[in-house]
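Chapter summary example: a protein plus 6-O-phosphono-beta-D-fructofuranose.
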Amino acid sequence: LNKIGVLTSGGDAPGMNAAIRAVVRKCFYEKIEIVGVVKGYQGLIDDNIRLLDPSSVSGILKEGGTILKSARSKDFRTKEGRGKAYINILKHGIDALIVIGGDGTFTGANIFGEEFNIPVVGIPGTIDNDLYGTDLTIGYDTALNTVVEAVDKIRDTATAHSRLFFIEVMGRDAGFIALSAGVASGAEVVLLPEKPTSYDELKGFLEKQYSYQKESSIVLVAEGENMGSTLDIANRVNEEHPEYDARVTILGHLQRGGSPTVVDRILASELGVAAVDALLEGQNSIMVGMVKDEIEYVPFIKAIKNKKNVNSRLLNLISVLSG
Ligand code: F6P
């Protein structure tokens, strides 16, 4: 193994830089050459590749975003695009790839690894935490902290006006952010794709809350939940119960930014090193994950296809503690 290429792809996540740094420094330690591919798979196709050395990753451990930039490449979904990418890999003498991203990134990596003779190892980087085979994905803990900070602030104004707030969080098809942030911020209700709630159930719950004369209520809505758009839900509640004075906040992309937490920095550093180790051991088409504080190798196909369940204990906590 003489030369590794590293890239970040899909939605960026805080801690991706820490992972890049770990990969680069570990390669230096192992005397392997390392190149960075700019803008994910698109950079492979466009030959946007540059040499990295230990100093090129100085100071990035604490930075959000990704110095390698990211993209959701349409061209890489085509056989032609992947062919171009492979030609550039040969041109640069790259022997193996490390891809940092989520399920879309690993889906691409898996196909690429089947079509061409190049070992690929993945590092889970997504705020959604929706990958099987790792307790946490890089960026999730930071996003949770960002969400909880925002919900705390909204709680202040909600209480001042005795209002109901619907706060929408990211997560794509998964409710991990909504559930964990819900427990940590004392949300009265969470709406998750994993546990469909009917409008009548929600209404019944809010009526109960209101009858307790709660000072404020917060419904944390996972963007992938089943009931329709957050604005539509809130409008319907307001029509039927104008006295709740409901408001909506969609947190959006602020959840993807910011300096990574300690948890994400350590996870990214460990997985970055583990990814290079995996390649040195001859692994291919796997994701490095962290399960119960141990490194695990998970085939891409499992990481993508197997379903990671939300924690039912946490779900229970929401209803017990909502008061
Ligand atoms: O996968 C990360 C994520 O932030 C999801 O939570 C969200 O659904 C999606 O990416 C948003 O994608 P984009 O930044 O392309 O709008």
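Key point: The chain has a mean pLDDT of 97.
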